[in-house]
Design the sequence.
């Protein structure tokens, strides 16, 4: 008999609707897992024992009444960047350590309405700025595959929690790779949808032209089930797109015959670990055996995505985080001398080192005399990168490459030089700059550590990404493997 | 043709785009961030490294390129009808405020 915590969203959905188990039983099982392992991994900021069980009881009542919603009674966790009414939303920062959200993010509201049970809120890099989950005010998250290593970031708590089977699924956000990179390093499936597909309302803003909410799950099928409920137009987000949400589950099984895959030439560079590269080639072989054809494509401007990102993202972050003033909400310093002192010390003490670094970088590139040279220049290069992708998608249906250059690195290994840390996102940033959907799926182990295969598609090609990922996962079992000690 | 990580790491010249202490003080002032004395040297070095990385953008010829304004082509800013949609929730929102009195946010005296 399979233990409840080993089940994914689709399997739990089935078990709940056939009344094989109750939501209360499932919720208890996962809460017990969180109590057992959550602290060691430091994956959670808030655990909601009582509220979760109350939600589970309501879900059971709906199920008893014969409701058939696929997500009723399925437990999940939210990255602590999503506002949750009446509960803390810290964004991993001292600035918001005591912030209790007055409303639900649209993502939270929609999933609640669909009947999910919220188990807790996960640890993350402060304000989603980081690639290792080491910038959190609440301390680093540990990778369940090797607790001396990072889980990736910024959605490190969500990824570690899914990998360690503390939850079947987690919400997350991706501004430069913050869903896909931790998905790869923790051996789970991570989806970053098309920009505008999922509402940003109630999701604490970092870089508004790049931020997108998404999912960490065991499988592409689980991700598809959840995205159906999460996605869709929201008038409260000015960049939400007015397009209907397709039935992502309906197209999962489509055969891959005739699928044209572009192999991203620039991704197979000297920085890519040789074993990691081999796992990607193995995965491509699996797809080719199912009838897909491979073709090398070149995106010549893609190597400039990291410098482009480190202008655009800090610029937007410096503007978005200007709202934290120590007056209306958030941290306030002790005994301010005057208003300027209140602003400066509240912000200086309330933000951590990485957040301050990015605010200052953004302030600098936007300051008088530098705007054209940096910000406008970066937005022009961003247009070039976007055009590279568009050209590629005239030739192929999806482009594929690694998600990260290497498996998980050790805690502390990259904290001394921010640029070394930034370059870890070299393969993921392009999709954010161009607003494209992308998914990372586990495709093997390198010295016992998971690595990810990244599939990037044209705007709104989520059905295709889920389809390719699902067909890959039908033939492989990497996504079913739990870290040793967390089975 | 540019190359990925190894290129950046080998070729970042710490002397190009380097920022000094006065620059950091000015940026911090503009950003309304009080830095402690011990934080400053690391920011001088880090921001110089970051700006050297950003300096790579000069390699791209963008003379014929319009800056990208939106990640999705053809999207425009949506407008809504000018109707009242929000109710007064200041009591709820002010529960998160550091200091409030009679429905007002308290700050240090601004006018003597």
Sequence:
């Amino acid at each position: 008999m399979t233990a409840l915590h080993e089940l994914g969203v689709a399997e739990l959905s089935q078990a709940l609707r056939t009344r094989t188990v109750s939501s209360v039983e499932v919720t208890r099982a996962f809460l017990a897992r969180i109590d057992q392992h959550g602290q060691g991994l430091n994956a959670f900021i808030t655990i909601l024992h009582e509220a979760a069980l109350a939600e589970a009881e309501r879900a059971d009542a709906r199920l008893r009444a014969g409701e058939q919603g696929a997500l009723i009674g399925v437990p999940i966790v939210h990255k602590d960047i999503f506002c949750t009414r009446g509960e803390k939303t810290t964004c991993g920062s001292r600035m918001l350590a005591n912030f209790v959200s007055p409303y639900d993010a649209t993502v939270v509201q929609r999933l609640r309405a669909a009947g999910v049970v919220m188990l807790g809120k996960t640890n993350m890099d402060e304000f989603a700025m980081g690639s290792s989950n080491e910038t959190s005010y609440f301390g680093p998250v540990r990778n369940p595959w090797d607790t001396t290593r990072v889980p990736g970031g910024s959605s490190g708590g969500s990824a570690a929690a899914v990998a360690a089977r503390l939850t079947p699924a987690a919400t997350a956000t991706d501004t430069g790779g913050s869903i896909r990179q931790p998905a790869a390093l923790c051996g789970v499936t991570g989806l970053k949808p098309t920009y505008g597909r999922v509402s940003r309302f109630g999701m604490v803003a970092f870089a508004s032209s790049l931020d997108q909410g998404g999912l960490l799950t065991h499988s592409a099928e689980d991700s598809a089930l959840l995205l159906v409920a999460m996605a869709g137009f929201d008038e409260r987000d000015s960049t939400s797109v007015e397009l209907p949400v397709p039935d992502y589950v309906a197209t999962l099984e489509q055969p891959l015959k005739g699928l044209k895959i572009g192999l991203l030439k620039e991704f197979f560079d000297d920085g890519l670990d040789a074993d990691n590269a081999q796992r990607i080639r193995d995965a491509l072989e699996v797809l080719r055996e199912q009838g897909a054809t491979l073709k090398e494509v070149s995106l010549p401007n893609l190597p400039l995505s990291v410098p482009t990102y480190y202008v655009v993202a800090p610029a937007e972050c410096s503007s978005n985080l200007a709202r934290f003033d120590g007056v209306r909400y958030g941290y306030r310093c002790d005994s301010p001398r005057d208003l300027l002192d209140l602003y400066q010390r509240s912000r200086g003490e309330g933000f951590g080192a990485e957040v301050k670094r990015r605010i200052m970088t953004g302030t600098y590139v936007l300051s008088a005399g530098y705007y054209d040279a940096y910000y406008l220049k970066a937005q022009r290069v961003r247009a070039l990168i976007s055009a590279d992708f568009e050209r590629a998608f005239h030739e192929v249906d999806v482009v594929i490459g690694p998600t990260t250059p290497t498996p998980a690195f050790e805690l502390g290994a990259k904290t001394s030089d921010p640029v070394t840390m930034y370059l870890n996102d070299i393969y993921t940033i392009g999709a954010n700059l161009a607003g494209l959907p992308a998914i990372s799926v586990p495709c093997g182990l390198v010295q016992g550590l998971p690595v990810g295969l990244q599939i990037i598609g044209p705007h709104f090609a989520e059905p295709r990404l889920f389809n390719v990922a699902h067909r890959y996962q039908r033939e492989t079992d990497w996504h079913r493997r739990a870290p040793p000690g967390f089975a | 043709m540019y190359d990925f990580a190894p290129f950046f790491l080998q070729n970042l010249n710490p002397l190009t785009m380097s920022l000094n202490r006065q620059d950091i003080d000015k940026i911090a002032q503009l950003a309304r961030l009080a830095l402690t004395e011990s934080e400053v040297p690391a920011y001088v070095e880090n921001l110089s490294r970051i700006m050297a990385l950003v300096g790579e953008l000069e390699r791209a010829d963008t003379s014929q390129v319009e800056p990208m304004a939106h990640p999705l082509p053809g999207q425009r800013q949506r407008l809504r009808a000018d109707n009242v949609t929000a109710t007064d929730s200041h009591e709820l929102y002010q529960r998160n405020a550091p200091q409030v009195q009679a429905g007002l946010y308290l700050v240090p005296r601004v006018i003597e």
Notes: The longest strand of chain B covers residues 100-101.
